[in-house]
Design a protein that fits this description.
The protein has 2 domains: 135 residues, Aspartate Aminotransferase, domain 1 (Alpha-Beta Complex); 238 residues, Type I PLP-dependent aspartate aminotransferase-like (Major domain) (Aspartate Aminotransferase, domain 2, 3-Layer(aba) Sandwich), CATH 3.40.640. By secondary structure, the protein is of the alpha/beta class. The chain binds pyridoxal-5'-phosphate. Pyridoxal-5'-phosphate (PLP) binds next to helix 3.
Length: 387
């Protein structure tokens, strides 16, 4: 039997054994509602406290600054919208990076429909926000800035600390939200050094389950909920807590805390091997991911092949049980690649782009298998289309 080679970790990751074990235990025997007054309720409440501790310690923040959400999308919505006044000020604007995930982009578009001017901060060919252009767009009327920490298609890192300083200077009243979904576990993240107002992440990108995440809020008292109901999460996120998934998220984060260095070593080895193979064994390619590890997270390599439709290559690899992506899972069914086009990548490359995102559990032989399959598939497609 062929062993599966899953290289789409930026879309989602397998749930790790320790998470499944902890969640199963919660579902089997500690299934109380944390709001119940009896012992089983207290047990569940205690489990929530433990997970909050694990996450706060990982992010270097206070436990009361963590709100559990249903994932990155909700975290980005609450982070961006929770701080806005009920009446949006006249002549106000918001600024987002031009290569944001749709869970940020579409919030900005909705606010635009409500009268706030939406300004896009342009990026360079490596997907990095162009600082001189950003400072021209952020001003005293900016009420919100939202920028991702790591891009989901190419893995590029935005210089959040530098951006934060610029934002505080140019727009002292603006709320600065960061989408950290692709950053957690892949690059060092600390709320002590970043100076952001909110930071969202998601469980299913770090070997916990789908439908769970957390949001850091610098000043939780200044935020309003975006859902209305009971008092869970101090009223910021009403609804009975998804206790098993929250426990799983805590365990996943705790394991990341312990294994961060080891994961980095695997990512970097895989990345170096893949980049070397692309350079030496595959011709007419363009690597979209920044080559320097100061500018890119180590778990994603985006590469374009001239004269090839990457969707065909994707399905050819799939037949060998190798799973990659043509872009972000959320936009892969949409037409065109908005992110790469914003980066100024020439159109001849756009259709031939593959995103390869490997996990810390994959050994170097998996990269070798992928490269061999890629050489074959790209070669075959080119031969067929060039006849
Ligand atoms: C950068 C980024 N932000 C937000 C999200 C949305 O997270 P979730 O799937 O947990 O809603 C994703 C998921 O692909 C992502 O990659």
């Amino acid at each position: 039997m062929m062993i599966m080679n899953y290289m789409d970790h930026a879309a989602t990751t397998p749930v790790r054994a320790e998470v499944i074990e902890a969640m199963t235990e919660m579902m089997k025997s500690q299934y109380g509602n944390p709001s119940s007054l009896h012992r089983m309720g207290l047990q569940a409440e205690h489990a929530l406290d433990t997970a909050r501790d694990q996450i706060a310690s990982f992010l270097s923040c206070k436990v009361e600054q963590i709100v559990f959400t249903s994932g990155g999308t909700e975290g980005n919505n609450l982070g961006m919208r929770g701080f806005l006044p009920i009446e949006l000020p006249e002549n106000s604007n918001l600024c987002i990076g031009s290569v944001e995930h749709s869970s940020v982009f579409q919030v900005a578009k909705e606010l635009e429909r409500r009268g706030v001017e939406c300004r896009l901060l342009p990026v360079d060919i490596h997907g990095r926000i162009i600082m001189e252009e950003a400072v021209k767009r952020i001003d005293a009327n900016t009420i919100l800035v939202s920028i991702q920490h790591v891009n989901n298609e190419i893995g590029g890192i935005q210089p959040i600390e530098i951006l934060s300083k610029q934002i505080r200077k140019a727009a002292p009243k603006a709320h600065f939200h960061v989408d950290g979904v692709q950053a957690i576990g892949k690059i060092p993240v600390s709320m002590k050094t970043l100076d952001v107002d909110s930071y969202a992440f998601s469980g299913h990108k770090i070997n916990a389950t789908k439908g769970i995440g957390a949001l850091y809020l610098k000043d939780p008292k200044a935020s309003r909920p975006i859902l209305w109901g009971s008092k869970q999460e101090r009223g910021l996120r009403p609804g009975t807590e998804n206790v098993p998934a929250i426990v799983g998220l805590g365990v996943a984060v705790e394991k990341l805390n312990q294994e961060f260095g080891a994961h980095q070593a695997v990512y970097i080895k895989n990345r170096n091997a893949l980049l070397h193979a692309i350079e030496t064994e595959l011709d007419q390619t363009l690597v979209n991911t920044p080559l320097s590890l100061e500018e890119a997270a180590p778990h994603i390599v985006s590469v374009s092949f001239a004269g090839v439709k990457s969707e065909i290559v994707l399905h050819m690899l799939e037949m060998k049980e190798i799973y990659v992506s043509t872009g972000s899972a959320c936009s892969s069914r949409a037409k065109g690649n908005r992110i790469l086009a914003e980066m100024g990548i020439a159109s001849k490359w756009l259709d031939g782009t593959l995103r390869i995102s490997y996990g810390w559990e994959l050994g170097p032989e998996k990269i070798e298998e992928l490269v061999a399959a890629l050489i074959e598939a790209v070669g075959e497609v080119r031969e067929l289309t060039m006849r």
